[in-house]
Amino acid sequence: MNKFKQRLISNKLEQELRIKNGKIVINEISCDGCGSCVEVCPHSALALKNLSKNEVNSLPFKGRLKVRIKGNSKAYVQNYDQCTTCGFCMKQCHEFAIHKVEQKTSETRMVI
Q1: Is the pTM of this model over 0.85?
Q2: 5 CA to centre of own chain
Q3: CA-based angle 104:55:50, to the nearest 5?
Q4: What is the three-class DSSP state of 2?
Q5: Is the pLDDT of residue 111 over 50?
Q6: What share of the chain has pLDDT > 70, as a percent?
Q7: Distance between CA 33 and CA 64 in Å, rounded?
Q8: SS3 category, 47
Q9: Closest CA to 92 of 51, 52, 32
């Protein structure tokens, strides 16, 4: 990766980590299902999900390719209440598939 791209990614990561009231989102197209984010999460908020054939086929080409290479799994946030948005997963992701976005105050979480 060239220095310019490294600087852009570093600046974006710093900006996202400064978000106070945020939540973690995982780009399912960029995620390759390696599981490194799951391993580094101190609160066990992330998990890997095995995708069905229909779920894999519904992904765009780039997403299907990545999943098939790594074994038909993707990372997802299994429990937003446990996630403290510490950013460890974002820093660990080699695909830059994990982002912190502002959570609107009107958003509510459904309790089941």
Answers
A1: no
A2: 20
A3: 90
A4: coil
A5: no
A6: 92
A7: 11
A8: strand
A9: 32
